[in-house]
């Protein structure tokens, strides 16, 4: 069976191209809006640009080289540039992931950037239904399932607490006793001077970094208030495991 070349396959009208790009902007914006409202590093405009850029790339890959389609030695591959988007978007997502002590943040934003790139590719390829359903499911995951995630996150029992206490006070002993009374188990304790460059300074506060495990998560806020009121404690900061 002889295959015939159909040049119309590699052509797209300006109207259709405009529809795809505008739709990519709208769908990417819907996902970015949730990230923006949550105050995340990659928000509304970032998601729009990723989705729109992905759509432009797949349109270029499919229709940007149509004048060479009829050449006998040219083999058109509409997915060649799109494949690079899927692997290349990782550098942007990695930039949103931060680790501070035990806290890891930005994983959800990195994942949303990756999925919004795939939605942009789908829109650019004319896969409208898949792009629309994908966007709907992502928005549901970010908006609605976020509430479910918060319920389960309350059960996360590992935290890091950073104390600043007056040197020479009995604050550390009182902290340990108070933690035991609230069911807080100390897994790791590191003591350092706030002015690490001057070890002879006996007036600088001590920084005590503790990795703790909670037995009763509901009383954690109450425990923090009690710990901050101990004599000799100049301040404290806390962070828990989160994605």
TrEMBL record:
The keyword Membrane applies. It is a multi-pass membrane protein. This is MgtC/SapB family protein. It is found in: Cell membrane. The lineage of its organism: Bacteria, Bacillati, Bacillota, Bacilli, Bacillales. The keyword Transmembrane helix applies. Belongs to the MgtC/SapB family. Keywords: Cell membrane, Membrane, Transmembrane, Transmembrane helix. The chain crosses the membrane at residues 12-33, 45-66, 78-95, 127-146. It comes from the Bacteria. Residues 21-150 form the MgtC/SapB/SrpB/YhiD N-terminal domain.
């Amino acid at each position: 069976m002889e295959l015939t070349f159909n040049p119309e396959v590699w052509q797209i009208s300006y109207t259709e191209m405009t529809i795809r790009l505008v739709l990519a902007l709208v769908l990417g914006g819907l996902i970015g809006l949730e990230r923006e409202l949550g105050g995340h590093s990659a928000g509304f405009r970032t998601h729009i640009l990723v989705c729109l850029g992905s759509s432009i790339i797949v349109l270029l890959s499919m229709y940007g080289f149509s004048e060479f389609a009829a050449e006998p030695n040219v083999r058109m591959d509409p997915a060649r540039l799109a494949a690079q988007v899927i692997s290349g978007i990782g550098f942007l997502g990695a930039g949103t992931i931060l680790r501070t002590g035990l806290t890891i943040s930005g994983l959800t934003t990195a994942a949303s950037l990756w999925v919004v790139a795939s939605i942009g590719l789908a829109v650019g390829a004319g896969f409208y239904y898949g792009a629309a359903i994908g966007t709907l499911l992502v928005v549901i995951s970010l908006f609605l399932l976020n509430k479910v995630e918060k319920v389960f996150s309350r059960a996360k029992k590992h935290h890091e607490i950073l104390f600043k206490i007056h040197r020479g006070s009995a604050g550390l002993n009182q902290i340990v006793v108070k933690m035991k009374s609230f069911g807080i188990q100390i897994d790791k304790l590191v003591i350092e001077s706030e002015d690490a460059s001057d070890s002879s300074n006996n007036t600088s506060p001590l920084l005590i970094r503790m990795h703790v495990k909670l037995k009763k998560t509901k009383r954690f806020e109450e425990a923090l208030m009690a710990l901050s009121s101990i004599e000799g404690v100049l301040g404290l900061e806390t962070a828990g495991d989160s994605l």
